[in-house]
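Backbone-to-sequence.
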């Protein structure tokens, strides 16, 4: 899959409006399973995941030039691949070995963990994998 992040999405913007905007620009259909949209209101963003073969860079460029997107101040960028994820709501005093085994379990991704950096003040941890496929 190919992922594009939409930024500056105001809380008043509904997901159905974004879906139509993506459909208008891409020519694809959410109903047909060509893509999905996940709203992330905490950071005023949305994630568009395309299931087929689409030039994400071209889509982002078209969205950034689209007058409706400009009206809403919405911008698009391709999501860069990363080897690390942030896990939140990690109970205090959770052993890093437990976090490693959890993420290496097939039910939870099954990827090889190379590092766990705990952030006890934030009840979080940064988990770094051997390659970027483990954090999907």
């Amino acid at each position: 899959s190919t992922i594009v992040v939409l930024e500056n999405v105001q809380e008043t913007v509904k997901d159905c409006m974004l879906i139509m905007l993506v459909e208008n620009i891409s020519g694809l259909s959410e109903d047909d399973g060509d893509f999905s949209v996940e709203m992330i209101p905490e950071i005023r963003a949305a994630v568009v995941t395309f299931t087929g073969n689409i030039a994400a860079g071209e889509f982002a460029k078209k969205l950034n030039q689209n007058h409706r997107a400009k009206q809403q101040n919405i911008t698009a960028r391709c999501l860069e691949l990363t080897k690390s994820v942030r896990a939140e709501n990690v109970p205090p005093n959770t052993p890093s070995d437990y976090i490693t085994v959890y993420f290496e379990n097939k039910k939870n991704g099954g990827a090889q963990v190379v590092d766990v950096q705990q952030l006890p003040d934030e009840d979080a941890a940064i988990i770094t994998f051997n390659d970027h496929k483990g954090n999907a």
